[in-house]
Design a protein that fits this description.
Order of helices and strands: HHHHHHEHEEHHHHEHH
Number of strands: 4
Radius of gyration: 19 Å
Oligomer: single chain
């Protein structure tokens, strides 16, 4: 059973930690006896996890992407700017998704074809994407489209729609990772790029495909985050890359590559979101 689902039960420590944390908070903190706080936790976790699903692919392959926070800022600014220009919401959403795929693919080309180390390539693009966001619009822009904003407030079975969207992304991501050629190749190059080449895997094309996935899922997270914030700003999502990488690693994905689980990335995202909600109630800055 372990092998079939490819979850090492030793990695489920993050799930046990989440359960213990929630029990402690429920027993000691009145704030955590209201459904509202849990919905807010799930809304924030949905953004972390959606981006984290893509990052899981990158880290399993032995790389990472430091530019996801800046990608989200740029995508959010583009989205709200298009809306203010009168572009239909669906067209603006598609534009953000396409932009995300382009940014992800470009990062992949820098790493796979130009042989620039992932740290340097994505750190450079972190600065470039955020600078571009500031050039497009240096001021905050409020989202006035009520249909889009409803994404953040709507619920299904008392669970926020944002979280359900993330669940769909997690299921699709798990299928791709475990049941498709690109997923198997991702695991293979994470274990050993040289061995993967000898086995006939096109490592460069696989890396580009991985960063395409990162870009697409980051774009989805951008839309969820923009709905949650109700506005865009070129400074938004600063530091998200570190939160997302932390969620992936806390979930048991090896920084060295070769193994990882989307399920535990989701659990770790909920854990971090819970911590971020809990710490201020004890007078602690969640971002210290």
């Amino acid at each position: 059973m372990k092998k079939r689902f490819n979850i090492d039960f030793r990695e489920l420590g993050i799930l046990y930690a989440l359960i213990i944390l929630l029990l402690v908070l429920y027993c000691t903190n009145e704030t955590f006896r209201s459904m509202m706080i849990y919905r807010n936790i799930l809304r924030t976790a949905a953004i972390y996890a959606t981006c984290g699903i893509g990052m899981t692919f990158a880290i399993i392959s032995g790389d990472f992407d430091l530019s996801v926070g800046s990608q989200m800022a740029l995508g959010s600014v583009v989205f709200t700017t298009l809306l203010t220009w009168g572009v239909p919401m669906i067209a603006a959403i598609l534009a953000v998704l396409v932009l995300g795929m382009i940014m992800g693919t470009f990062n992949g080309i820098l790493i796979a074809k130009m042989r620039i180390p992932a740290f340097i390539a994505t750190l450079g693009m972190l600065m470039a994407y955020r600078a571009l966001a500031q050039m497009i619009n240096g001021s905050p822009v409020t989202v006035k489209n009520k249909t889009f904003l409803a994404l953040s407030t709507s619920k299904f079975l008392e669970v926020p729609i944002l979280f359900w969207i993330m669940v769909v992304m997690a299921i699709l991501g798990t299928v791709v990772l475990r049941k498709t050629k690109i997923g198997r190749n991702t695991l293979a190059i994470g274990n050993s790029k040289e061995a993967a080449r000898i086995a006939g895997i096109n490592v460069g094309n696989t890396q580009i495909a991985i960063y395409f996935i990162v870009g697409l899922l980051t774009a989805v997270a951008t839309l969820l985050g923009t709905a949650r914030n109700g506005a865009s700003n070129y400074n938004n999502f600063s530091g998200y890359e570190f939160t997302v990488i932390s969620a992936v690693v806390l979930g048991g994905t090896a920084l060295a590559g070769g193994k990882g689980s989307i399920f535990t990335t989701v659990v770790a995202s909920i854990f971090l979101s819970t911590l971020n909600s809990a710490l201020p109630t004890y007078g602690v800055n969640a971002y210290v």
